[in-house]
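Weekly modeling sync, notes
Attendees: S.R. (lead), two postdocs, one rotation student

Agenda item 3: backlog of single-chain predictions. S.R. asked that every request posted to the team notebook include the full sequence so nobody has to chase files. The rotation student volunteered to paste the first one in as an example of the format we agreed on. Action items at the bottom.

Example entry:
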Amino acid sequence: MKTFKDYVFDRLEGLEMGQEKWIQILTIFLKNYNNTIHSTTKEKPIDAIKPQYKMNVLINIRKKAQFNRTYEPLQVNDLVRTYVKKTVQTKNRDPRYSKEIYRITVKRGDQYLINDHRNRVWNRHELFKVPDGTDND
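Predicted structure, as returned to the notebook:
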């Protein structure tokens, strides 16, 4: 969706057309999009749905997936933002992590308590380390 929205609104702006005219460039977008090789699947979307490409598409998607992410270790008193779980209403432009900055108060292995007054245990992958000196704007 982001690719679509970016393309449409960039073109409308470049052509100095109002946003209500987006439907006029939809066909052009779909033709270009469906005939462009994509970095993850290594296929054009128009081809990727064909049975003979299915296995290659699945293999390429699997290769691109990140399964071994590593995270910088966190310590008590480190500043963090918390992961914001997506909902049906969440937009791609919405932040993944909280605006609020918290401080780690307790660490047990890869689980943490922070000063958010919720007494919730957070896992390492749910916390984003904030550099010291960052203000909570």
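Discussion: group reviewed the output briefly. The chain has a mean pLDDT of 85.
Action items: rotation student to repeat for the remaining queue; S.R. to check formatting next week.
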